[in-house]
Every structure is written in C-alpha cells, then in structure tokens.
Design goal:
The chain is an alpha/beta fold and 461 residues long. Helix content is 45%, strand content 11%. The strands form two sheets. A six-stranded mixed β-sheet has the order 3-6-5-4-7-8, sandwiched between helices. A three-stranded mixed β-sheet has the order 1-2-9. The protein is flat and about 65 Å long. The N and C termini lie far apart (68 Å).
C-alpha cells in the first residue's frame, strides 16, 4: 500500500489508505458471433475502501500541553468542525465519552482522551460558534455535553441522509454514496474505556471524521437539489436545541421479557432485582447487562426462589460470579416478596397516551377508523417526497391525533402538531391532508367489534 505521501484524487486505487471493495456495479459488453445480439452483463466494480487517514493516525491527546497546541490549530482554521465521540456502551455504566475526534477544514485530526482529565475550557471556547458536523448527532451530543462541549448549530449527516431518501444511512454507506469511497468499520462495538487503546481502534476512530466534512458538503448540495435543505436545517436546529432526555418512568419495565409476567408479585421481583443490579453496576462502573442479563432477572421473577440454593439452580445464577452474589440477589427477591399488596406495581403507565392500536377497535371503534384514515395520507406523502415515514411525522403524534383529535379544521390540526413538537415543514406538509382524513373518517362505517377474549387475571401471588 502506498505511504501517506501519495497525493491522488479520492476514488483512485492507489490513494493512501485505500483498498479495493466490490459494492458497486458497472456494465460491460461481451462480443458474440457475427449477427448475434450483443450480451450485456453487470460486473462488480471495485470500490476503494479507506483503511487509514491520509495523514496517518494521530497520537491521542493526553496532556494539557498537547491539548493546548491542538486547540490553537483548530482556532486558526475556519469553517465547520467534524465531531465524533466513542462510548463504551455495553461495557461501562452510563454513556460517557471515552474518546473525542475532531477535524476542521484540511487540518489534522485531533483525538482527545477525556479519561486524562484535561481542562477542556479552551477546546469548548473554540467549538462554541462553528457548526458541528456529526453523524447521528443525538447519540453523541449528551456525552459531549457532559464534558462541557456544546454546539450552537449542527449538521447531522445521518439525519440529513434520511431526509434525502438514502436507503442506507450508516456513515460508511453515506460516505460511499456521495464520495465513492468505503470506510473500514470493524471496531464499532469495542470497549473504548480500554487503556491503552490499540492502534487499529484509533485508526477506526480517526476515519469517522476523516471525510465527514466532504460528506456534509455533498449531502447539503443533494438536499438543496431536492428542495429539502430547509427541512433538514429545521431538523438540525431541533437536535441542537434538544436538552437531555427526561428520566424514564418506571425504567425497570424496559427489562426484556417483563411483559410476559402477569403476576404483580413477579413484576415486583423484577423491579427489586433491577434496582439492585443498577446499584451494583453504578458502583462498579459496569454495564448492568454484564452483571446480570435481563433473561436471568425474568427467570428469577418467575421462579421466585427463597433460598440461595434454589437461586443457584437457575441459569446464570449458577455461575461463579453470581453464586458469590447469591445472598445479595436473594435479599432483593425477599424484599419484593415481603411487600404488601398495595405496594406491588400497578398497570404500566402510558404517560397519558393512547392504548396500543390493537385495542382501539374494541375500546373506541371511531378512533380505530381515524387511525386508518390518518395513516393513508402520511404514507402517500412519505412516498411522494422520498422520506421515511417516521421522519415525516412521529408515529406517536399520529396516534395521538387519531385517538383524541382537536377538531377537523386544518388550523386546529396544525396547532396540535406544533404543540407535539412537529417542525414547521412537517406541519406544512401534513396538516391539511390530515384534517381531510379526519373529515372522511367521520363518515366511515365503524368496524365490527372483535370477539372478546378472556383476559388473564393479574393475581397477587
């Protein structure tokens, strides 16, 4: 492979860090016998895959002097800043950043180690002003905010690619679509809290910002060509302005498999084990699932063992680590088993939202009809404009409109959508068609009620 002094145009086989792939196709001809129809076949065309940054993988910034020098370089450049962060999801507790990647204009890539506990005040000052270019910004902005790094404006290449109608919106796919270059992406699920980080991981991380500014420019041009740049900028502004997510109500209810438990007592065991696991995970700075998987929590809630021996007979709990924690888990189970009935979990709260759509025909047949009518223009508009349906209007907003409409006037519908957080471009596209759908639904026949099925009795056992 040529060294990084090679200066060839992107897309050429000999460019630094590029290897051949085969994701695209081209047409080639094959000559037949005289007088025969020529046969045209499609053969794969090698797609260059970038395996290293053109200027090489930089050293990680771990000292204040190195950070100050990098900040000075960034400050001397102009234009947007490509930004990315790596977290240790699935390994560590929480979503902290363990590496921050930056690039501005044609300057060098900067890799900053937040674990080094550097003073990031100067970096925050340089980044307070220019547009940040991120891929799937909502995933990285919270952990960057924890470091005191916040943007005034963003350009989200993943969200922009959705609005542009690209069929695949991962960074490698979007880069290939616009630049004709693939990215080597083999370290996406590693433990970024590892120190020292292997060189191959750092190369992977640097590639995340190597071409991001080029992708941004190409995507902006495509959005402008499609007449969607204004839509995208409204979405980007909403992402930049979004605060941290609100705390989830009853987060233990997200335990995989808990919906299968009909007994309130079993649900109480899940709640108690979930809280015990959370406390232990936080104290150890380990992902909760690595301490005790959801399947083990549900198994214990189903069996409700009362001795450590009975607990150890269950899968996962029989392992060495959880055998040592046997009494800890058993204490959590015992606490749930000792609760009075009035302290057991009640029905899951839905935050004031409508019930699951499958129950609408029985609970409110008119709402079921409205939901069908509301979905039709949304699907048509999404297809017409080449948008994913969920980016045209969130499914929750559509369901709430159908369940409890504010009226059938377009202005009433527009006010409702805006109150639910829909952007101006979304309201402009959907308010009138949705109002018409609600009017049509009022004259539609109601569905026949389904035969009532017996509902399992929720017991206290």
């Amino acid at each position: 492979m040529p060294d990084d002094e090679t200066d060839l145009a992107p897309g050429t086989d000999d460019a630094a860090g590029l290897t051949a792939g085969t994701d695209a196709g081209a047409t080639v001809g094959t000559a037949g016998t005289p007088g025969a129809t020529e046969v045209v076949e499609t053969a794969p065309v090698p797609v260059p895959v970038l395996t290293a940054p053109r200027d090489g993988t930089p050293d990680v910034v771990t000292t204040q002097a190195a950070l100050d020098a990098a900040v000075e370089v960034l400050a001397g450049l102009e234009g947007p800043v490509a930004v990315d962060a790596e977290r240790a999801s699935g390994y560590r507790y929480g979503q902290a950043a363990y590496l921050v990647q930056l690039r501005r204009a044609d300057g060098p890539i900067t890799l900053v180690d937040p674990v080094a506990r550097l003073d990031l005040t100067g970096l925050a000052a340089v980044l307070d002003g220019p547009e940040w270019v991120l891929h799937a910004a909502s995933q990285d902005l919270p952990c960057l905010a924890e470091l005191g790094l916040r943007p005034r404006s963003v350009f989200d290449t993943e969200l922009g690619a959705r609005i542009a109608g690209l069929p695949r919106v991962g960074l490698a796919a979007v880069t290939e679509h616009f630049l004709g270059i693939g990215l080597a992406k083999e370290h996406s699920a590693v433990d970024w809290s590892t120190r020292p980080m292997p060189a191959s991981w750092l190369t992977y991380a640097a590639l995340d910002v190597e071409l991001l500014l080029d992708v941004r420019d190409a995507l902006e041009a495509e959005l402008e060509r499609q007449g969607k740049l204004g839509w995208a900028r409204e979405e980007f502004a909403a992402v930049a302005a979004a605060g941290p997510p609100a705390p989830r109500v009853d987060p233990w209810r997200k335990t995989s498999g808990v919906h299968k438990l009909r007994s309130r007592r079993a649900q109480a065991v899940v709640r108690s084990l979930w809280a015990a696991r959370e406390e232990l995970a936080r104290s150890r700075d380990v992902s909760p699932g690595r301490i005790l998987p959801d399947s083990a929590v549900v198994a214990a809630a189903t069996a409700q063992p009362r001795t450590t021996a009975a607990l150890a007979s269950l899968p996962v709990f029989s392992g060495p680590a959880n055998r040592r924690l046997g009494q800890y888990w058993l204490d959590a189970i015992d606490a749930a088993m000792a609760l009075p009935e009035q302290a057991l979990p009640g029905q899951a709260l839905r935050g004031g939202g409508p019930p699951p759509p499958r129950a609408w025909a029985e609970r409110d047949p008119a709402a079921a009809v409205r939901l069908v009518r509301v979905r039709d223009p949304l699907a048509a508009l999404a297809a017409e404009h080449g948008l994913p349906l969920e980016n045209l209007l969130t499914p929750d907003t559509a369901r709430r409109l159908a369940w409890d409409p504010p009226g059938t006037d377009a202005e009433q519908v527009a006010a409702f959508l805006g109150g639910r957080g829909a952007r101006a471009w979304q309201v402009g596209l959907t308010a009138a068609p949705l109002a018409e759908a609600l009017v049509r639904a009022a004259s539609d026949p109601l569905p026949e009620p389904r035969a009532r099925r017996s509902t399992p009795v929720v017991t206290e056992e």
